[in-house]
TrEMBL record:
This is RWD domain-containing protein. It comes from the Eukaryota. Gene3D superfamilies: Ubiquitin Conjugating Enzyme. Residues 9-111 form the RWD domain. Pfam families: RWD. InterPro entries: RWD_dom (IPR006575), RWDD4 (IPR042770), UBQ-conjugating_enzyme/RWD (IPR016135).
Length: 170
């Protein structure tokens, strides 16, 4: 079988196995995301996997660059990727996505054992600065009246305002 035939067969199998599974997302026929753990779980992470043209003879590209993973330290990400690379090496030449996803699910605790959630203080302070700036901008903003509000204001003040304005225009 050619690499493309292997990919087509594996893609069909993945679609069948993970049909309706919210953890699996097919980005394209050669690119996938798989969430390990529940959304609320602080030790959950998303694997991004892309197949090179010669997959499964070549290793898939695995990354943890999804925004969801921003709370995971670089050290923990490196540890997860190195352990996944070991699994890739052990399965080289075969369809391995199901094997990798299931292995990661079964070993989530071990993969995340050194995980300490990353809290970005810069993001919190910059959010506060943005909020302060927005509030200040709202205070400085002039009140703009709609045409209907202007008409009501004129009618309340009487025709004098209208005539005064008319006299200045002549």
């Amino acid at each position: 079988m050619t690499a493309n035939e292997d990919q087509e067969m594996e893609l069909e199998a993945l679609r069948s196995i993970y049909d309706g599974d919210e953890c699996f997302k097919e980005i394209s026929p050669v690119s996938f995301q798989f969430r390990i753990g529940e959304l609320e779980d602080t030790k959950a992470f998303i694997l991004d996997v892309a197949w090179p043209e010669m997959y499964p003879e070549m290793a898939p590209k695995i990354s943890l660059d999804a925004f969801f993973n921003n709370r995971i330290s670089a050290e923990t990400k490196h540890q997860i990727l190195s352990k996944l690379e070991e699994q890739v090496e052990a399965n080289m030449g075969t369809a391995m996505m199901y094997t990798l996803f299931e292995w990661a699910k079964e070993n989530q605790e071990e993969l995340m054992e050194n995980h300490k959630p990353v809290v970005t203080v810069a993001n919190i302070s910059s959010s506060n600065e943005m909020l302060t700036t927005r509030l200040a901008a709202k205070k400085d903003k002039k009140e703009h009246l709609t045409k209907a509000q202007k008409r009501r204001l004129i009618s309340k003040k009487g025709k004098t305002v209208f005539f005064l304005n008319k006299n200045f225009n002549n």
